[in-house]
């Protein structure tokens, strides 16, 4: 497999600048997710890498081969790029084996049959090669589409929201299986998704797009724990935002004096800032009830139970409501008085940058 380098690429879709000066470097064998809201340019980026849209600026390189630059586009079939679409798009008149074999390079019959059998085994469909596409479940059809995309041994595999049409339970299991398979095969892969959980749980790194711009590119932990902007913080996961005053590495707010890191600016003591916290960073601390200087008093207003965890809304005595996410092992009850504390440093953003 090969590295993929997208260097300062801009792409127009019709009269719209859909991708603006985007740069990504994806290592061989890496699975990278491209995450963003609808219309942010995710699919446009994939189409340009696949050779289906020309670039207006910048270059795209796979390994040591430059495949796109302004005025020059290598044909899609000569790029060594595989594609798994949102819908499996299997040929209805061909069997599973024939669908897989459609993408296997023509050659001696025995070698070709071996490759089809190898791919069917790889995706767990050994006993299905003689079936018609209409005899498959949605997950099985996507496995066939994956096998077909891997058949020519592509340098790069592009996956365009391949699990979006599946029900929740099937989607969760299949995407985990596919990620493990791609890593086992050492396949360099680019997965487009609008599903934050999918991006964070599957990818080695995540590229977050907004309005055609790259907002942040990093590991799932960096994207979630250290967002590069207030927009990324709000888009990826739940947030609690509180106004406060900056005091030498801490923010004085309704939750007390909270340690924080300033993001994107250098505040002076006394500056008004916005403190961002993840709900799981706020915890009830019964041991602090007698310490007026630590934490903040609150009353549990509601509990949204989700099985493995729960989201709790707590009304601060001297402030607004805040969200807490807790493991659903030992939950408070609605109406309970609690004292809340922040268990890890928060993130401070300039007040004017938040909506």
TrEMBL record:
Name this protein carries in UniProt: ABC transporter ATP-binding protein
Pfam families: ABC_tran (PF00005), TOBE_2 (PF08402)
Boundaries of every ABC transporter domain copy: 4-236
Stored InterPro entries: AAA+_ATPase (IPR003593), ABC_SmlMolc_Importer (IPR050093), ABC_transporter-like_ATP-bd (IPR003439), ABC_transporter-like_CS (IPR017871), Mo/tungstate-bd_C_term_dom (IPR008995), P-loop_NTPase (IPR027417), Transp-assoc_OB_typ2 (IPR013611)
Protein's UniProt keywords contain ATP-binding: yes
Lineage top rank: taxon: Bacteria
GO MF annotations in UniProt: ATP binding
SMART domains registered for this protein in UniProt: AAA
Keywords noted in UniProt: ATP-binding, Nucleotide-binding, Transport
């Amino acid at each position: 497999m090969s590295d993929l380098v997208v260097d300062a690429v801009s792409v127009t879709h019709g009269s719209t600048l859909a991708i603006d000066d985007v740069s990504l470097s994806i290592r061989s064998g890496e699975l990278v997710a491209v995450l963003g809201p609808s219309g942010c340019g995710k699919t446009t980026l994939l189409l340009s890498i696949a050779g289906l849209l020309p670039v207006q600026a910048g270059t795209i390189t796979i390994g040591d081969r430059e495949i796109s630059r302004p005025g020059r586009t290598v044909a899609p079939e000569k790029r060594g790029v595989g594609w798994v679409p949102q819908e499996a798009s299997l040929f209805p008149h061909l069997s599973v084996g024939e669908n897989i074999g459609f993408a296997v390079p023509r050659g001696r019959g025995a070698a070709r049959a071996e490759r089809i059998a190898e791919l069917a085994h790889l995706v767990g469909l050994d006993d299905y090669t003689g079936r018609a596409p209409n005899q498959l479940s949605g997950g099985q059809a996507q496995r066939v589409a994956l096998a077909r995309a891997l058949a020519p041994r592509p340098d790069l595999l592009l996956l365009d929201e391949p699990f979006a049409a599946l029900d929740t339970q099937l989607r969760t299991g299949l995407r985990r299986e596919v990620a493990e398979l791609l890593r086992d095969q050492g396949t360099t892969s680019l997965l487009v998704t609008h599903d934050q959980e999918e991006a964070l749980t599957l990818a080695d790194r995540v590229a977050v797009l907004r309005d055609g711009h790259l907002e942040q590119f990093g590991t799932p932990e960096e994207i979630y724990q250290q967002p590069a902007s207030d927009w990324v913080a709000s888009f990826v996961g739940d947030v609690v935002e509180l106004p406060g005053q900056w005091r030498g590495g801490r923010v004085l707010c309704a939750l007390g004096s909270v340690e924080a890191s300033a993001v994107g600016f250098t505040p002076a003591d006394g500056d008004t800032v916005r403190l961002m916290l993840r709900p799981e960073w706020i915890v009830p601390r019964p041991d602090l009830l007698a310490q007026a200087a630590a934490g903040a008093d609150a009353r549990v207003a509601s509990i949204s139970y989700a099985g493995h965890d729960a989201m709790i809304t707590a009304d601060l005595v001297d402030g607004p409501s805040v969200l807490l996410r807790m493991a659903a092992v030992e939950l408070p009850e609605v109406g309970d008085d609690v004292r809340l504390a922040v268990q890890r440093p928060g993130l401070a953003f300039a007040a004017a940058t938040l909506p």
